[in-house]
Amino acid sequence: MSVNEYSFVTVWKIEAPLRKVWDTICDIKHFPYWWKAVENINVMDKGNSNGINFITEPTWKGVLPYQLSR
Questions:
Q1: Per residue, what are the HEC states of 49-68?
Q2: Which positions ≥6 away from 32 have C-beta within 8 Å?
Q3: Cα atoms found within 13 Å of the Cα of residue 30, Cβ hemisphere only
Q4: Which intervals hold domain Coenzyme Q-binding protein COQ10 START (predicted)?
Q5: More reliable by pLDDT, 5 or 2
Q6: Less CB within 10 Å around the terminal CB: N or C of the chain?
Q7: Longest dimension (CA), the chain
């Protein structure tokens, strides 16, 4: 991995029906409502009816006073 790449692993434990969890995780546009680190999701391309080629540009906020986006 080069110095300008970043990779992380996260584990989520959610007590809810599988379908509800899956639908929530796949609904990227609503991440800012329940994930404090996501400030905004800008939809760049809606993709097709199956979600193929759906492209977003998220804005992330961390503990330090800066934001990350594409």
A1: CCCCCCEEEEEEECCCCCEE
A2: 38, 39, 40, 41
A3: 6
A4: 14-52
A5: 5
A6: N
A7: 39
